[in-house]
Amino acid sequence: MKPFQVFTGLIAHLPYDNIDTDAIIPSREIVSPEKSGFGEKLFSSWRYLDKQYTENSEFILNKEPYRSSSILLTGYNFGCGSSREMAVWALAQFGFKVIIARSFGEIFRNNCNKNGLLTIQISDAAYLSLSELCNKSPNQLKVNLEDQLLQSVNQNAEFEFHFDIDTTLKEYFLSGQDAITKTLEHKLAINEFFQADKKTRPWMWQS
Asked: β-pairing, 149-152 with 71-74?
């Protein structure tokens, strides 16, 4: 997981509610135990017209400049449905770094956090304001995690929103750590506990 501090990227706007994990990565596309190769299959039911992956020219991620989008803006309950982690992998492998939504499916959001994909929930008013800007023209957005601030960087496009984030989660993203690497900072204390416990409860360590 790489540290996330300040990031600026192009927004792709999907103005829908209840986009579930089967829309993000259909189950028919999950044909390998590998963690790679999911980016091209992201939203495949919408991006492609057939099984030969003929592009749907009307879908936003098949249009310029949105092919290189790195921030996704969408509506309520994004990522509802199953707990498949491949949905997060598909988004990340396409190139998304930040998902902004009115709300998220909780399991999906937890999967995003564990895979280094930042999720930001915004108010209805902020969503309407930002979506209006996106509908007018392509927009770049600056995400400042330290200040918990979203800002439009386009000329003549005013948008600013302070977002909330769990303090521990914010620390993980800023430092590039996760729960495992954070735990391993206490490796010495853990080993000391194991050694003491072997003496106190030797029967627990018998193989």
From this structure: unpaired
What are residue 193's DSSP bridge partners? none
Residue from 141, 94, 101 nearest 119 by CA: 101
Mean pLDDT of the chain: 92
pLDDT at 38: 95
Domain ranges (residues) in the chain: 6-176, 178-207
Residue-level pLDDT at 188:
80
Contacts of 140 (CB under 8 A, 6+ apart): 8, 9, 10, 11, 152, 153, 154
For the domain 6-176, what is the CATH code?
A: 3.20.19.10
Tell me which residues of the chain have a pLDDT lower than 70: 179, 182, 184, 207
Q: What is the pTM of this model?
A: 0.88
The runs of H, that is alpha helices, within the chain are: 21-24, 44-47, 86-94, 106-114, 124-136, 167-175, 179-184, 187-200
